[in-house]
Amino acid sequence: MKNTIISPSILAADFANLQRDIELINNSEAEWFHIDVMDGVFVPNISFGMPVIKSIAQHAKKPLDVHLMIVDPDRYIKTFAQLGANVLTVHYEACTHLHRTLQAIKNEGMQAGVAINPHTNVTLLEDTIKDIDLVCVMSVNPGFGGQSFIENTYKKVRQLRQIIEANNASTKIEIDGGVTDKNAKQLVDAGADVLVAGSYVFGSSDPTRTIKELKNLVQS
Fold first, then answer.
1. Nearest alpha carbon to residue 183 among 210, 207, 209, 149
2. Cα distances (angstroms) measured from residue 79 to each of 9, 109, 110, 143, 183
3. Which of 55, 83, 103, 170 has its CA 20 to 30 A from that of 14?
4. Phi, psi of 171 (to 5 degrees)
5. Beta-carbon contacts of residue 146 (< 8 Å; ≥ 6 apart)
6. Alpha-carbon distance 60 to 49, whole Å?
7. Measured between alpha carbons, how far is 13 from 15 in angstroms, rounded to an integer?
8. 177/109 Cα distance (integer angstroms)
9. pLDDT for 80-134, tens place per residue?
């Protein structure tokens, strides 16, 4: 049975009680921490910077899945490796030389991820798929949490799964945005391996139980 990875998004956590929420994920059935880094240029919002990520890394006992929604991400690859990122995801739309960027991430000992916006066609990744460890399919427009899920995502996931299998690649598919108990199973059935859940987890009355229920749902 395939193990679907649950990666709660720290963007939706309570920043006044960040250590508490990190410990919550440490003690839950979630496998990764999803950390969104926004620069206010690539997306119309700004999230946390290096000192906050350093603090998260000090307390997190699970891999850090870092998603860079920034222009010119190559500048910071080494920095995020030093901060403790395990997976570093850059946006296809922000990389002029994607292959070079992927190699630079791997050279720092991290897994290399590529995120694609809702309007970006998955076929654009065909030439680099064997160099990509994870494709993050944005199922909302990036920049803000709590948005509604875009239904065309299922089709993109199925197309991407076909590309991965046709190239005999081991790339994981991650879904980021609007993931809930209403679409999680369908996404996994379409070919997803990793589910990012932010508002759905941290907005619930019992986040630990919500993670467990999501995990049970996709494993059933």
1. 149
2. 21, 12, 12, 22, 35
3. 83
4. -60, 135
5. 12, 198, 199, 203
6. 17
7. 6
8. 27
9. 999 999 999 999 999 999 999 999 999 999 999 999 999 999 999 999 999 999 9
Q: pLDDT tens for residues 127-172?
A: 999 999 999 999 998 766 667 899 999 999 999 999 999 999 999 9
- Helical axes 18-26 vs 207-219, angle rounded to 10°: 30
- Look up 176 and say whether it is catalytic: yes
Contact 142, 69 (CB under 8 A): yes
User: Bridge partners of 197?
Assistant: 8
Rg (CA), the chain: 16
In contact, 31 and 5? CB cutoff 8 Å = yes
Q: Quick check: 199 and 146 in contact, CB under 8 A?
A: yes
Single out the catalytic residue among 21, 39, 131, 176.
Answer: 176
User: Per the structure block, which two tokens stand in for 42?
Assistant: 């690539």
To the query of whether residue 193 is one of the catalytic residues in this protein, the response is no
Cβ atoms 22, 206 nearer than 8 A: no
Which residue in 21, 36, 133, 193 is the catalytic one?
Answer: 36
Cβ neighbours around 21 below 10 Å, total: 22
Residue 97 CB-half CA count within 13 A: 6
Helices 50-59 + 18-26 axis angle, to 10: 40
